[in-house]
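Appendix B. One record, verbatim.
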Amino acid sequence: MTAKQRRFAEIVLTIASPILLLLIWELISRSGRIDQRFWPAPSSLWDTTRTMVQDEDLFGEIWLTLERILAGFAMGAVPGIIIGLLMGISWPIRAFLMPIATAIYAIPKIALLPLVLIALGTGEMARWVIVALSIFFVVALSTMGGVLALDPIFTDVARNFGGNRWTLFRTVALPGSTPAIFTGLRLALGFALIVVVGTEFVRPNGGVGSLIWESYSILSIKKMYVGLIVTALMGWLLVLGLDLIERLVVPWRRAL
């Protein structure tokens, strides 16, 4: 199979899986085996979606959630990569930060929301910070693991040629750990979406999460399902976007 044929097959399979899931859902719903009041067929959601787009600013809610995800993601991912590289290169930094990283990583980040709200108030900054906290350690630990997995010969060669810590950071650790960095970023995107939607549940102030919760509260089931499907699509498209960036930054992984 050529590279083009494989790429075409990947696209077909990527599109086929969600379509198959929706088709199964549609058939089960139409069979009458489940209560359509609570499990409406996907085809019955089109009119609801059209109304939400035209009359209720659905795209505005989507953009608000995306803005929170991307802002928090940038705030957490960039420092996470830098700290992860430093932890991988330097054992004193790793020994100093690992207890903190493992302890905070284990805490459900939504549990930190009250503390963040006390410190920063109820504005957008608090939502960005809770997203940043939720992904920082995921990215840092993944990056550190990527550096530690490098063959020591690369570091030895750089040092033998007179490389300092900055040279190791720039020419060995960063390019060598890039695949692990993108693995961490992919996981972090999922965490970011979960945390943002969760905070929109707890502190409704616009966004897709707020839309889902308010629809559930008034038993507007079809609107709730539209919100859930939109959330799933957002997660899928964000990961696809990150995959495209990875293909440009790490082209040698295309054949894997």
